Amino acid sequence: MLIGIDPGKKTGLAAWLPEEDRFQEIRTCTIIQAMRFCQLAIRDGIKIEIWFEDARQRTWFGKAGREQLQGAGSIKRDCSVWQEFCEQYDIPYRAIKPQAGGTKWTPEYFKRVTGWAARTSEHARDAAILVFKANKIGGKQCA
Question: Which residue has the higher pLDDT, 72 or 118?
Answer without folding.
Answer: 118
